[in-house]
Amino acid sequence: MDDLRRHLLKRLIRTMTIQTLKTTLRLWARLSVEQQESLDFTKPKYVLTERLLDLCEESGLGVKHITELEMVYVIDHPNQRQWHAYELLEAADDALSVELSNFKEQFKAHLAELIRRVSIRIKKHTDEAVWIRIAWGDRSSRPNHLKPTYVVHHLQTPYVFITNSTSKTMPLLSQALVLATRYSSMKDAGLSGRNLAAIRGLLMKQFQQVFPSKHLQPLQGDNQTKPNPQMECEQDEQSEKRLQAACEAFGGGTLPELQKVTYTLETKFKDKTNQIMTEREQPFRCTVTFKSSNILESLRHSALTGITSTPLSPLLSSISQKGRNVFLITDKGKTEDQIGKKRGLRNLADDVFLKDTIEAAAWCQLQTFTDHVSLPIVIGMEGAEQQALLAELKSVDRSCLEESPNRIEPFQFFFNSKKDYEMFCVEMFDRRKLKVFASWE
Amino acid sequence: MSVLRPLSKLPDINAASVLLVENEEDFQQKLAGVMVKEKSVMVKVRLAKSLPLPAKNEPNRPRIDLVVFLINLMSELSLQSAEASLKHLGQGYFLGKVCFMVTNARHAALPAERMVAVRKLASGLRCPLLYAEDQTPDGVTNAAERLLVILRVAAGCVPMTTALFLSNLTSCIVPTEEEEQQNLDFDA
Amino acid sequence: MDPKTSVARSPFSSVVQRRSKSYRQSYRSYVGTMSHLAYTPGFTKRRLTTCRLAPKRCSTAEMNPEQRALLVREWQLSYVTPLYRFQHGHLKTYSRQLAAFLVSERQRGVAAEVGLESTLRVTFTLVAGMAQTEEEADTVFIKIHSKTPLALPDDPQKVLWSGWLTCVGGDPDYLRTLPEDFVCLPLFCSGGTEGLTALVKAWFQRTFDCCFGLLEINSVNLQWLAALWTDCHARTSIKQLKLVWSLPAEPPMEVIYAMHAQDASELWRSVRQPGLREEEDDGSVGLEEVACFFKGLKSHFYRHFRVELPAGRLTQVSTALGSAKHGGRIKISNSSYMITTLTLLTECALLKMPI
Fold first, then answer.
1. What is the number of domains present in chain B?
2. Gap between the Cα atoms of C129 and C139, Å rounded
3. What is the pLDDT confidence band of residue C18, given thresholds at 50, 70 and 90?
4. Where is it localised (chain B) (predicted)?
């Protein structure tokens, strides 16, 4: 017991700097102020570890409390680990009304059923995120606190972020999560990275898409001093166009930090100069990975300098659009894309309904409403069903929509409180100019 | 128009215009900053990433006396872009009004094949090939001075000398194998 | 330089005559100006290797254990100028001298990694079977062992550092032009700590009056390696061809392009003079074919991503046969095509040498 405590503490302190140790101890709040002040932070780490162990003895703090300390540290510094995003699918009716205490109970109960020896700690952070720390054991051994899994979930959103989960523990974890949150299944969202805020922002579209106005100077011009009249750039317009295209695809402000993007390509090789390969039936299999400390920033910069030709390839712009960084591209997928581009404006309008409805629903999930809000049924449906409903909606004449409420119903937002309804309308119709259906009872 | 021609406009008095073409758009800024400070002649610098130049600038553009291609030898794209731009230059420019300036020629990782390709390009077009160092202010100043020498001649500001005459003296020459063999025989 | 000028004509004349497609190779001129950077037109003409022999397989059974030791790890490459009065017969003496030198440096406080108590033992061994022609010197393998005084005699000795000097497939004409006392082993591969490498180099410099320098593998040579290794796929599977480019964006971006071995191999074969039958293939690979192969790969990439790979630099090539990095690090994983890889590297070393 003592050994484990010592081992845990030693390992933890090794990863922290002195400054973070100070702040983490303060946040932990298990040691009194005098005890914290008695620690001499100028001494080497092994001395500090011994002193901390003594203090823990004094205050009667055990392994449980050390794991709490670790959790406080990880919540404060989540970017030391590799996070994977998962998406919960097919919400049941009451999925949105799952409360924290309910969730906690259900999760603990379900996981304890699935695996006997497991140590769970749940904490709610100030920004509405629920943090779960799980140490896995099995029939023959105690929970292993040296390799815990951390899970972050925002209630009422269908996203879960997990780190350090093995293939053995993943199915158990997903089962417990799905049951506790009242969804029907969980799938890999295809997004992973070190920066938790970045992947969260990317998935939930929380980062700002700042579009530059025409008055922005191109990147390479001198914006500080007045440009010399004797020097002139011939191709200013092209650089501005590149700037526009880059910002449209990636956004203009600070970009979320992703470390890499992987594409598995299984498309046919097409080259005019090489007949033999072009006629080959099998696809040319390869994997392309883009790596950088901030890959979106690098891609945007490369678009500005012309290394990446604009208009940007849809494969690159779909990183932030779809919120993924693992893609599988096959010929069929590409063909669909091309068809999508050729679709007329009329067809685009149909998709607009669905797209706007989904966007509105995502917004609703992040808001706190005074009363119950019912999201459109179409959100939780399968693609084929969605298309069918869309078709039905399309078949109705635009001018007499009110007369066919059944067609509109799957797309409608239902509000119980007038205030919520008004807030929704202001946001959707006035600010975002989306095409959605809403009603208030 | 898609092809730039040297003699399609009237020259300005005591002025010279130079067009710096560079794919990376980096060295050209520094060079331009130094070149416009020249006092003896009013130097106008136009910067471009590649040719052809946009047609809408045509009325405001002065007569271009010298076109300089800045090539970064460490980037293959730089050379490819310069080669592609050459097609949009009128034939009249190749009589001494085109010059190649390369950077990073001393880089340890430079594949020699690229250097040979640039030399062949310059010698095939009978243009001078200048080597420049772009990382220090001194290097940039030196490069700008050398370009100004050629620019003054190309703009007609130096009496008794024309661009064609100068290019005969300064153009890059890559001897063929037979010529080399003859040189050696003669030497020994 | 006098002895060299007198024989300067023979390399040129012999090269001019050898116009055949197979193995034609020459270096920058050994006449006068040695700098690989400046060109004096007329005298120095660099003829580039435009054609290489396709890789020949050497069977694993023929390999001796010393050769197998070369496959173990990743090596850092350097070039070495010819060694003065290096004799293969005196290897034992050299071992003792190097050991003594290392001990004295340690006492001076320079060799920190070695540790004050352990005993050092240096072994110089000959690695037979690598030299391709008579003029080439045999490969020499150097190992530095250490043993703590408390260890039992049966305990294996820890290898602190190992390295080897070699010349594989060097140009015989150039080798013939070297004066009698010089031995040419231009490729030096070292594996171990930087400090020990520096000490070994210092000892060589002092004893044999030679010069060391970092050997970087530039992008064209990496392309050659990629093409030669892909060519081997028909006989030994290379599992996958992985190429790494670094692009100059802010922050710098790396693109890792890994292809399935079979597909890469088919692309290579389609590029190699399409229509060439088995009998006609004389086993030589041309630079245009390599360029074509890479052009095809880059165009496939561009078609999907519209990112210009030529704007960046090829920094790493790896297959199951080995991996090569731009900074001069090489790992040979498979013995079958070791000789070809080493021939290319020896040539790089000979070209980079200032003499």
1. 1
2. 9
3. very low
4. Chromosome, Centromere; Nucleus
Check CB contact under 8 Å for A234 and B45.
no
What ipTM, to 2 d.p.?
0.84
Q: What is the pLDDT of residue A63?
A: 81
Work out the angle between the directed axes of helices A63-76 and A18-28 (0-180°, nearest 10): 120
Per-residue confidence (pLDDT) for residue C28, from 0 to 100: 40
Place of tokens 């995003």: A85
Is the Cβ–Cβ distance between A316 and A308 less than 8 Å? yes
What CATH number has the domain bearing residue B132? 3.40.50.300
pTM of the shown model = 0.75
SS (H, E, C) B4-64: ECCCCCCCCCCEEEEEEEECCCCHHHHHHHHHCCCCCCEEEEEEECCCCCCHHHHHHCCCC
Pull the structure tokens for residue A154. Answer: 């925002």
Assess A263–C contact: CB distance below 8 Å, yes or no.
yes
Retrieve residue A171's tokens: 């199915």
Q: What is the pLDDT of residues A310-359, one digit of tens each?
A: 788 888 888 888 888 888 888 765 433 333 333 333 333 345 667 677 77
Query: Residue B8 falls within a domain, yes or no?
Result: no
* Local structure of residue A426 (DSSP, 8 states): I
Domain encompassing residue B157: 15-187
For C83, the 3-state DSSP assignment is strand
Helix (H, G, I), strand (E, B) or coil at A166: coil
Phi first, then psi, for residue B174 (nearest 5°) are -120, 110
Q: Which of A217, A226, A230 to mutate to test the interface with B (most CBs of B within 10 A)?
A: A230
C-alpha to C-alpha distance for B80 and A292, rounded to whole angstroms = 26
Q: Token pair 């620690």 is at which residue?
A: A39
As a whole number of angstroms, the distance between CA A324 and CA A320 comes to 7
What single letter denotes the amino acid at residue C352?
Answer: K
Give pLDDT, residue A123.
Answer: 84
pLDDT of A106 higher than 50: yes
Residue A402, both tokens = 């009110």
CA atoms of A37 and C198, how far apart (whole Å)? 49
Predicted confidence (pLDDT) at residue C1 exceeds the cutoff of 70: no
All domains of chain A in start order, with CATH: 2-76 (no CATH), 80-202 (3.30.160.690), 238-334 (3.10.20.720), 339-440 (no CATH)
Q: Give the residue carrying structure tokens 């690979």.
A: C285
Contact C267 A263 (CB under 8 A): no
